[in-house]
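>> received
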Amino acid sequence: MASYRRATLVEIDAAVEVWIAANSTRLAPEHPARLRSWARLPGAYLAVAQGQEAALTAMGLALPGRAEDGVGDVIPGLTHLTGICVLPEEQGRGVGSRLLDHLLGVARTTGHDRASLWASADNDRGQRFFQSRGFLRTGRVSTDGLGPELVLGRPAAGPRAGRGAGGRCRAPGSWRRPQLRRRPVGRTTSGRAGQSLSRIVALAR
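>> returned
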């Protein structure tokens, strides 16, 4: 059984290696360096899953949500999730779900009642995963170097169905609260044209 916890500063590189392994077929060259940089930002929370043999098997990063896609002011109560991924050999075992639960639990305890994330428009598995956890497509679309991306939203204490998932990440940021639809999905980074999935949902208390 894996343990889920906050990574130490010396584990940042090892955590990013997990992201690289999980995204070997869709790797954006600039993302590893961005993740390393974001993980050191004030207010950042880098979560990892650690397997029985002490190896890291998953990672996810929570950042203070900001306006203007990450370059504006901090939006009170909003946390932005990015870089959520699970090693290919560990996917399908619930690792991604438990990692997401850990990140959302931390968000709630630190006063955040909403969360957002971006998902690649062509990452069907990742979209299904977040959708199964209550994320909804907001209709927001953006582009990055790898293709279209979508924004998803939902409350922090949502459905618990769903299993591990991998996927690219998007620059840290938050978005205006769009009208949420009933069963949509998505994600974003910086480069290709795409749709954005922003998880903007009230975190249940």
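>> The chain has a mean pLDDT of 74.
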